Amino acid sequence: MSCRIINALLTFHVSRLTFHVSRLTFYVSRFPIILTPMWYVYLLRCGDGSLYTGSTTDVARRVAEHAAGQGARYTRARRPVTLSGAWEYPDRAAAQRAEAHFKALPRAAKETWLAGRWPLAGGRFAFEVMGDPAPFHFCPRCGGALEWRPSETESEPVPVCAVCGRRDYRSAKPCAAVLILRAGALLLVRRCREPYLGYWDIPGGFLNEHETPADGARREAREETGLEVRLVEFLGFYLDTYEYCGDRFATLNCYFIAEAEGIPQASDDADDFGWFPLDDLPTAIAFEHTPRVLADLRRWAGGRAGQQDETS
Ligand SMILES: [Zn+2]
Fold it and tell me: What SS3 class is residue 84?
């Protein structure tokens, strides 16, 4: 390689390096957050119902210390403690200002503030330090915090908005699925999305808001297989759970038995399809409730074969 080329390459790399260093300097000077830990004002609910306020860079560690009786004299005598909320600040001084501000509030104001999770003296509510992974901490109507309160009619506590009092009713999400049969074989599609990526699956999905289960089953069949199905019979309801965005919720799955003409075309959630005899189905089939569905389907098909034997 000639000296000129080496020189040119060197110059190029040095200029690139200088560029990166100058960019890094730019970011470091602009966003000191990158290099310094965030500070948090955190609130603990003590065993006697009172609130304890503290500031730290590591909320989880402080909560564990308070829970073990090593955090503060106040909390040691009032255990158990639970984390009620935390707000995020760029530095210690800002966190301590907010802490002093919060401590000076009357008790009722503290509770209102906490229930609404409003920004505390400019700090952002630090949702991610809350221990519970379920995202439903907030009232869908007013944004107030949901609290689990004892109910007169139910054995378990129920989520109620601490600000507007609306109860957040939760129930299984309805889904519809379709068991497409042809000459004793069941049509399955292969999932190309999580959950259960790569598993065989029965065509189906979540219902739209104003859709009947039968309409939803026909739509899902159309979307995932390209087939227009004729629903033959309703097989049953099956409860299961589904995970989405870190939330695990119940599903109510409605299964229909169907027939269809034509050649399937896998699309939407599916990238392949196959016809499987009912006595030779693949083992890697998506979702926990599916073996119960397939057992019921085999029973249904067996009963039907018996009826046909009697009439022929
Ligand atoms: Zn509310």
Answer: strand
